[in-house]
Specification:
This protein is about 35% helix and about 15% strand. The protein has helices at about 1-25, 50-65, 75-85, 105-110, 120, 135-140, and strands at about 40-45, 70-75, 95-100, 140-145, 145. The chain starts with a helix and ends in an 18-residue tail after the last strand. It is built from six helices and five strands, in the order αβαβαβαααββ. The longest helix has 22 residues, at about 1-25. It is an alpha/beta fold.
């Protein structure tokens, strides 16, 4: 059962990655002269955890029918923060999409490393519906009232301990 929830969360990340990637596609990504589609690689930076291979497979499956490919780079948890700060802003020339921990949202926003996604979902009534997300999860990716991402794997960290100690 817990693996089912993890897979659902990873599939959601794939869908979000697809939505944001399409938002950032250059207007000339379809070759109107030949009627064919240019294959564009979408660069995605993710934490290299045990779920990374599932995410890569699911995202690639969602993008393939659109003629898009996903190019993943895995990095360690702490390395993600350093990479984002080194890039200065997202999306960047290196990465179209980055999956990062919500604890860094405010810092990244204040440093100008993120752009708000407010205009992307507010302008499209058929697009992202925030009422389908848990409000506390959305709060984690807001800074100064602006929304900087979508929750893909909201969960509470728990501390388990032995009561007999």
């Amino acid at each position: 059962m817990r693996y089912t929830y993890a897979l659902i969360a990873l599939c959601l990340l794939s869908a979000v990655a697809l939505a944001f990637s399409l938002a950032f596609l250059p207007s000339g990504s379809l070759d109107s002269n030949s009627g064919s589609q240019d294959v564009r690689g979408i660069s995605i930076l993710i934490v290299g955890d045990p779920f990374a291979p599932i995410l890569e497979q699911e995202a690639s499956g969602l993008l393939a029918p659109l003629g898009l490919t996903a190019n993943f780079e895995r990095a360690g948890y702490d390395a993600i923060r350093e990479i984002i700060l080194a890039e200065k802003s997202l999306p960047s020339e290196s990465f179209d999409i980055v999956a990062f921990d919500v604890v860094w949202t405010s810092e990244f926003a204040k440093r100008g490393a993120l752009i708000s996604i407010d205009g992307f979902y507010r302008d499209d009534p058929q697009g992202i519906r925030l009422d389908q997300f848990l409000e506390p999860a959305l709060d984690g990716i807001r800074a100064d009232g602006a929304l900087y991402g979508l929750p893909i794997q909201p969960h509470a960290e728990l501390l388990w301990y032995r009561t007999d100690l």
